[in-house]
Amino acid sequence: MAPLLLLLLLLVRTISAALVVQCGNVLDPGTLSTVLRPAIHVAQSFLHGNCSHNQALDDNVLRIATWPTYANISSEMTVTLHLIGYGYGLPLCASDPAQRAEWYNRLARLTGYEIVMNRPVPFLVPRDYLGFSVAGAGLTLSPPEGRLLSQPQASTAAYGHFRSWETLQLAVPAAPGLLSSNLSLAGCPAPYLARTQTSRHRIIAAKGLTVVSDVDDTLRQSEIWDFRRGLQRTFLYPFTPWASMPKAFAQWHARIPDTHFHYTSDVPETSHEYYVNGLTQWYPPGTYDFRAIDVSTYAELMNSRYWNVRRLMETFPQRRFILLGDTSTATNMEAYGRLAKEYPDQVQCIILRNVDATVPANWGRPNLSLLPADKLILFNVSTELYRKRMLNVLEDIASGELSGCGGLQTGTAGMDVGGWWSGIQSYATAAWRLNMCWMLCEGRPDKQRCAFDRTERKFKVEK
Ligand SMILES: *[C@@H]1O[C@H](CO)[C@@H](O)[C@H](O)[C@H]1NC(C)=O
Ligand SMILES: *[C@@H]1O[C@H](CO)[C@@H](O)[C@H](O)[C@H]1NC(C)=O
Ligand SMILES: *[C@@H]1O[C@H](CO)[C@@H](O)[C@H](O)[C@H]1NC(C)=O
Ligand SMILES: *[C@@H]1O[C@H](CO)[C@@H](O)[C@H](O)[C@H]1NC(C)=O
Ligand SMILES: *[C@@H]1O[C@H](CO)[C@@H](O)[C@H](O)[C@H]1NC(C)=O
C-alpha cells in the first residue's frame, strides 16, 4: 500500500513543481517528470482550482523548508552537518482558506468521510504541497557561534531540492547538542525576496546508541493497509501516536539519556511539517529523514530508507544501531535486512511490530527471510518494549557490553517467513479486498463486509 500512497503524494508534489521560480541554471529534471506530465494536469485542476499555471507568486517571498538533521564532530573544533531541504514559494491563491477548505472537503468526500469544512482546517496542513518550486537558487548559511569554513556549494535542483555536507569551524570545542543556523536562498532576481529560515542540526557524539525508527504504524497510527483510512489519517486527522509508544520512547530516553533518536519515513519531504510537529509533540527530540524530492537519483527515490540510514551509519561509524519498524511496511524488511548484512557491527538488533498479531485487516505479507533471525525481535504490543529486561538490554548495548539483542531475540516467532510468495500474496489479497470494498465509492457495501474496516484486536496487557 505504501507505494500507492507514495505515488499519490509524489504526484501531488510534482504538480506544485509545475509552478517554478527560476533563479539560475538548472539541469533537466529528466524523463520521470515528462512521463508524469499528463497526470499533472488532471491533478492540477483538482488541487489548485482557479490557481492557474501562469499566475505569479503573489507575495514574491521565497521560503525554505528544512527539518532537524544530524552533525558529527569531525575534529576538536569542527563539525560536519547534513544540510537538506527545499526552496518554495506560496501563491496566495493556493493558500486561500476557502480554497483549502474546499480541497479538504473534496478529499473527505472521495474517501467516504461525511464532513463539510466551513471552518479553518483544525490542524496544521501540508501547505507546501501547493507551493512553487525555487529552482537553481544558491544557499547562504549563517551559524551563530562559529564560522563556516566555506559557504554551501549546493544549489536547489529542478524541484527545489538541495542536499550537501557543510563543515563548520566553531569558536568553542564541539560538543553534543543543538546548533541553530540561519539559512536562506540566494541569487534569485528581483522582485523575489528570500526569507530566512532557522535550520537546526543536532551534534551527535561519535559513540553511543542510535535508535532508527520508522514512523507510520510504528510510532503513528496510519493504517496504511486501508487506502481510504490511510488517506484520512494522513490528510484529515491530527497526528495520533500508536498505542503506548510515547511511553516506551520516554522510558528508553530516561534510561539512556544520550540515545540519538533518528526518525525516518518513506513519505516525501513535503510532509515533513506534519511529521516533525507530531513527533516533537509525542516523542523525544531527534533528527529526521524523508524521501528526498530528488528525481535525479532513481535509487534514492525508490529506496530512500536504505540510503538514508546508510548515510547515517557512515557518518557515525562507531555508533551502535537499533532499527525499529513494523511488518506492514515492505521497505522496512528490505532496507533493514540489507543494512544488517552490510554493517553487521553497527546493526545490533532489529525490533519489529508484528502488525498481524493485532490487526486482522493487514494484508501485507512481510518477507521476513530477508532479516537475520538472530538479531530480530518481533513484538505484538507496545508494552513489551518497556519491560525491565528490554531496558537492561538496551543499556548494555549502549555501553558496548553486549552485542545483538541480548538473548531477547524471537527470530521470526513461527511466522510464515514469506519468501518469493509474499509479494504475490500481498497484492492478490489487496486487489480482492479492494474489489469487495469499493473503497473510493460512496455506494460500497456496508462495513461488516469490508475486510479493510476490521478494527484492531484488543490484547490483554501483561505486566
Ligand atoms: C478563485 O475563485 C473564487 C470563487 O470561486 C474567487 O473568489 C477568487 O477570487 C478566485 N481566485 C483567483 C486567484 O482567481
Ligand atoms: C538569524 O536571524 C535572526 C532574525 O532574522 C537574527 O536576529 C539573528 O541575528 C540571525 N543570526 C545569525 C547568526 O545571523
Ligand atoms: C563525519 O561525516 C562525514 C560525512 O558522512 C564523513 O565523511 C566523516 O568521515 C565523518 N567524520 C568522522 C570523524 O566520523
Ligand atoms: C504475538 O501474536 C502471535 C499471533 O500473531 C502469538 O502467536 C504470540 O504468542 C504473541 N506473542 C506474545 C508475546 O503475546
Ligand atoms: C524474500 O527474500 C528472499 C531472500 O531471503 C528472496 O530470495 C526473495 O526473492 C524475497 N521475496 C520477495 C517477494 O521479495
Overview of the molecule:
The chain is α/β, with parallel strands linked by helices and 463 residues long. The chain folds into 2 domains: 2-204, no CATH class; 209-420, Rossmann fold (3-Layer(aba) Sandwich), CATH 3.40.50.1000. The protein is built from 13 helices and 17 strands. The protein has helices at 2-17, 31-48, 92-95, 97-110, 227-235, 245-255, 272-282, 298-302, 304-315, 330-342, 355-358, 388-398, 421-437, and strands at 20-22, 61-65, 69-75, 78-89, 132-135, 138-142, 146-148, 161-170, 177-186, 193-194, 197-204, 209-214, 260-268, 287-291, 320-326, 347-353, 376-379. Strands 1, 2, 3, 4, 5, 6, 7, 8, 9, 10 and 11 form an 11-stranded mixed β-sheet that branches. Strands 14-13-12-15-16-17 form a 6-stranded parallel β-sheet. Helix 11 (355-358) links the parallel strand 16 and strand 17 (376-379). It is globular. The relative contact order is 0.12. The model is unreliable at 122-126 (pLDDT under 50).
Helix/strand-derived category reads alpha/beta
The CATH C-level name of the largest domain is Alpha Beta
State the helical fraction.
25-40%
Assembly status: single chain
Total of DSSP H or I helical runs spanning 4+ residues: 13
Beta-sheet strand percentage? Answer: 15-25%
Mean pLDDT figure: 82
For CATH, the homologous superfamily of the largest domain is named as HAD superfamily/HAD-like
Straight-line N-to-C gap = 34 Å
Number of strands: 17
CATH architecture of the largest domain, by name, is 3-Layer(aba) Sandwich
Structural domain tally: 2
**Ranges with pLDDT <50 over ≥5 residues?**
122-126
